[in-house]
Specification:
This protein is of the alpha/beta class. The protein has 18 helices and 22 strands. The strands form 5 sheets. It has a 6-stranded mixed beta sheet with strand order 6-7-8-3-9-10, sandwiched between helices. A 6-stranded mixed beta sheet has the order 16-19-20-13-21-22, sandwiched between helices.
């Protein structure tokens, strides 16, 4: 009886003393992780802490160099992704690995389709079994739908259904809410609770503290490839969790070193409309203030950001910078007037990954360093070094390819790019997406500092804490329109969400 009880409570997965080394880098050193059936275990740490390496070892993408793995109390070897899947581990990576042209049902049973007596694929059974899996997780997705046509939230459900099809004991979710609306996040959490109700252990990897406190039972923190702590979530506060993650206290995540904003409108937008999304948008952003924009997915925040700087065409309306109209409406005119955009998708729309840090930073200001048609590299290097020092950009060298820097340091380089050019208005779209909590604090301080130096900062964000923590005023969008504007002391999460619903 005692042996049966012991077997019943055996961890779904135990990793002991895990080590992994890459050329010149010790990625993991003596890391432990224990996952209990029916529990949500958050895995947290800054970028570079080792989270991705650890979950790739679980997934069989990397082999471990040291340590042991036990599944349901038994020694196990995971050398390949097939080993991982066959032993009941399913990792839902941030980049979802589904075949877009296949149907939902085809993706779920990709490793083996049900067949009829003739040996052909039994399409009716395929769809019926897929529907049954969705009923188990309490989510309705059409098994016959083309997977590529589904929103990200439903594609995640397809990945979860695949896990159930393989009788997963462990489901790992890597930054699962990075592209989800608040409503979709609540639906995902309902599915996670359904999974734990089935006895499945869920690993939840996220930078979002509020989500972790809502969904996790236990949290493990890694730092610099080492295990720092494993504690029940109830023993943590936001401050203690941040301290474990970055090794120091952050007394205030949202600094307010700047004084009150001035009355001068650095940016005026009147009756702005685009063919596809924006409808009669009007607002002013004052010199020295942070004007936050919030909206649910599809509300038009990113479209507004791109229209303001001349990137997306408009069909009506006027944009003025210090009273001067943005005419013609294009990016070169916008840059000339002093508007810069920190894009939501820094990898594809902001960075030139193979180029050095120095050239990525100086790109918008290269004419400043031109001498007789050639770039004065000494002057360029001096200007770049000044911003690297000012923004505390962590890079081994100015010649380092920017793709090798962490997300937070990449974001600092992009901010410096525009400031080196000279700005009156900067539009920042999701400035902390994919950035760990320590780097977030630095980006928040930089935004506060820029506003304090007299810039108008227009910030588009889906993160409620940073919206409320940084903004002087908050504009809420729904359906391509501004539905409400709140002063800092009037804004509450409830009022903002009500306006966002429209």
């Amino acid at each position: 009886m005692a042996a049966d009880t012991l077997q019943a409570v055996a961890p779904a997965l135990e990793m002991r003393g895990i080590g992994k080394r890459f050329p010149g880098v010790l990625a993991l050193e003596n890391v432990d992780l224990t996952l209990e059936p029916g529990k949500v275990h958050a895995l947290m740490g800054e970028n570079g802490a080792g989270k991705s390496t650890l979950i790739k070892i679980m997934a069989g993408v990397y082999g471990k160099d040291a340590g042991s793995i036990r599944i349901d109390g038994r020694e196990a070897e995971i050398r390949t992704p097939r080993d991982s899947l066959s032993q009941g581990i399913k990792v839902v990576f941030q980049e979802i690995a589904l075949i877009a042209e296949f149907t939902v049902a085809e993706n779920i049973f990709l490793e083996g389709y049900p067949t009829n007596r003739a040996g052909s694929i039994d399409w009716k059974a395929l769809r019926a079994e897929a529907a049954a899996l969705f009923r188990r997780i309490g989510f309705n997705v059409d098994p016959a739908a083309r997977t590529g046509s589904l929103p990200v939230s439903q594609q995640q459900m397809v990945e979860i259904a695949r896990a159930l099809a393989h009788e997963a004991r462990v489901v790992v979710m890597d930054e699962p809410t990075s592209s989800l609306t608040p409503h979709e996040v609540s639906l995902l959490f309902a599915v996670i609770r359904r999974l734990t109700g089935l006895g499945i252990a869920v690993v939840y990897v996220s930078h979002k503290l509020d989500e972790v406190f809502e969904i996790a039972d236990t949290v493990t923190v890694l730092r610099d490839g080492r295990h720092i702590s494993t504690r029940p979530i109830g023993e943590h506060t936001h401050d203690t969790l941040i301290q474990d993650m970055i090794g120091r206290r952050i007394d205030t995540l949202f600094p307010r070193a700047r004084g009150p904003a001035g009355s001068r409108a650095a940016l005026s937008v009147e009756g702005l409309s685009t063919a596809a999304k924006l409808r009669n948008v009007s607002f002013e952003a004052r010199a020295g203030e942070v004007l936050g924009f919030f909206g649910l997915m599809g509300a038009g925040r990113t479209e507004l950001a791109k229209a303001i700087v001349g990137y997306d065409p408009i069909v009506a309306g006027t944009i003025r910078v210090d009273g001067v109209p943005l005419r013609p409406h294009d990016t070169s005119t916008g840059v000339g007037l002093g508007i810069g955009l920190l894009t939501e998708d820094r990898k594809s729309e902001g960075l030139m990954g193979e180029l050095a840090v120095s050239r990525n930073m100086s790109l918008a200001a290269l004419p400043r360093f031109a001498r007789a048609g050639f770039v004065d590299e000494g002057a360029e290097r001096g200007a770049v070094q000044a911003f690297v020092d000012r923004f505390r950009v962590k890079t081994p060298s100015l010649r380092q390819p920017i793709k090798s820097l962490s997300g937070g340091n990449q974001q600092k380089v992009l901010l410096a790019r525009w400031l080196m050019r000279g700005l009156k208005v900067i539009v920042v779209d999701e400035p902390t997406r994919g950035i760990d909590v320590g780097a977030k604090a630095e980006i928040f301080a930089l935004i506060d500092r820029l506003a304090g130096e007299g810039l108008a900062v227009v910030m588009m964000t889906s993160e409620m804490p940073e919206l409320l923590g940084l903004s002087d005023r908050i504009a809420v969008m729904a359906g391509g329109r501004i539905t409400a504007t709140f002063a800092r002391d009037e804004a509450t999460q409830e009022r903002i969400l009500n306006a966002a619903i429209g």
